[in-house]
Amino acid sequence: MASRRWLILVLVLVVVSPLFGVIGAEIVGYHEPLDLAVERACEKLGIEPPDVSYWSGLLPDYTVPGLNDVVGYIISGLVGVAILLIPYAMVRRRK
For the whole model, what pTM was predicted? Predict the structure, then answer.
């Protein structure tokens, strides 16, 4: 019973997360600190920023290509939760 409540809470948080990660970030103009640091360092050194297109991750920038940013953010959250919960459930069943 308690694990069901936790799962519902996690799912609600995943669905609400775009309010902060997408919509809120656009409102306040948030940018990733490491991206800004690299950009400013390259400007000071007078060099081009490095090309990192060789690796973009499973879901780059928490989006799904071809989908709305908010929907992609939710799907990314669900994938992240699944990556954590599936191994946990497997270990828990073995006991």
Answer: 0.74
